[in-house]
Design a protein that fits this description.
The protein is mainly α. It has one domain. 58% of the residues lie in helices and 0% in strands. The protein is built from eight helices and no strands. α2 crosses α5 and α5 packs across α6. It starts with 10 loop residues before the first helix and ends with a helix. The relative contact order is 0.13. The model has no long low-confidence stretch (mean pLDDT 86).
């Protein structure tokens, strides 16, 4: 699934597809809120990571969700875990879009310290909190608009 897909598909639907959600074609903004509250499938974290770093060189699913959760839990992620996966998915989706689906360049951006993020890496900031993910998204919007980032 390429991040550069365009058309009349909503952002929620494009990112749900990016996340590998089986019902992505039915997802709208409201359905997404309900899915987050209910919890994404555990495998969603792995799918998201594989989209940004297929070889696992830079980022691992355990950077988002604890190893014990990924390997032992049979039911859905918690609401907090699902919110974290959603926020990171938005960041990863935008990074891939800016780098024209070059996963290697996108992954390197995510692990490289950035002066506009206080010398922190985008992945560390984005996985820390939704506010951190939003800050990375603002940086990406500036870069996409051609503003010095």
């Amino acid at each position: 699934m390429q991040a550069t897909e365009t058309g009349a598909v909503s952002e929620a639907r494009r990112i749900a597809k990016f996340m590998g959600l089986s019902d992505w074609a039915k997802v709208d903004d409201l359905a997404l809120v309900e899915r987050v509250a209910k919890g994404f499938p555990v495998k969603t974290a792995t799918v998201v990571i594989e989209r940004i770093d297929p070889q696992g060189k830079f980022v691992r699913a355990t950077d988002i969700i604890p190893k014990s959760t990924l390997h032992r839990r049979k039911h859905a992620l918690t609401k907090d875990e699902s919110e974290k996966v959603w926020a990171l998915s938005k960041v990863f989706y935008e990074v891939l879009k800016i780098y024209h689906d070059d996963a290697g360049r996108a992954a390197r951006f995510m692990i490289q310290e950035h002066p506009m993020l206080g010398g922190r890496t985008p992945i560390d900031l984005a996985k820390e909190s939704i506010a951190g993910a939003d800050l990375v998204l603002k940086l990406l919007a500036k870069a996409d608009a051609g503003v010095a980032a």
